[in-house]
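The following record pairs a protein chain with its ligand, N-(5'-phosphopyridoxyl)-D-alanine.
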Amino acid sequence: MGRIAYVNGRFVPHAQATVHIEDRGYQLADAVYEVWSLFDGKMADAEGHFTRLERSLSELRIAMPMSRRALTLVLREAIRRNRVREGLLYLQVSRGVAPRDHAFPGDEVRPSVVITAKSLDRAAVEAKAARGVAVVTAPENRWGRCDIKTVGLLPNVLAKQKAKEAGAAEAWFVDELGFVTEGSSSNAWIVDADGRLRTRDTNANILRGVTRRTLMDVIAREGLAVDERPFTPAEAVAAREAFVTGAGTLVLPVVAVDGKPIGNGAPGPLAMRLRRLYIDEARAGAV
Ligand code: PDD
């Protein structure tokens, strides 16, 4: 008998078990999971895994998809249908399926639930344990590689949601030294108090924005200079102008940071000019 998976209320053959392409787990890593070890077809440490699951969900403000009791029944059914005695049980709960947007969707979007169960060869596992294993070390960089355009966007999702709840359009991440790194889905710029264009250098732990790169060429052609030097939120508030860049936003003026207006609280003239120039450049070069 083949493996059976549970997907959103239905048990389906493993090979046909799919979630929608706009599932937020798939697109944004906006999901949590648990793994139970199975002995004699029963969940080990069941309580501990349920408690952590509920905590993970609540930290992300994802609703428990069903009661613990109901979930236990579904998990047991997955074990039963797969005839697993010794093995592993996997549960994943994502925020659900919604058109791609970093911020949370409305409450009408229900969490997605996926469960799989697999058997393992306990004797082989024990033989391996008897031999012992080797380990290697790796730098603790979870997640220090923001230069990679990965879909592991959960921190970005949470930051964007924070912005949305504050009536803002974007969140700027600030590093441990107090400098802005970049936005949750854009690069950050200011025209500082001295009139200099400033944006963070790409040696830092940020995404190398393509829009940022093209805009630099536009700026150079205009005979202007860019100072690739980080700035603090206070410098942004004291700046003449600010804006963000990205494929989703192009060049978008920023008029306030943390509720404090930048300049006179209106889009800056240079930001608006760069937006027009960028759009002209991008439109002309589009293939
Ligand atoms: N985001 N920084 C982050 C974290 C981003 O997600 C993006 C783009 C950028 C700007 O990169 P580019 O100029 O290459 O688009 C910077 C896309 C638009 C998104 O996630 O929707």
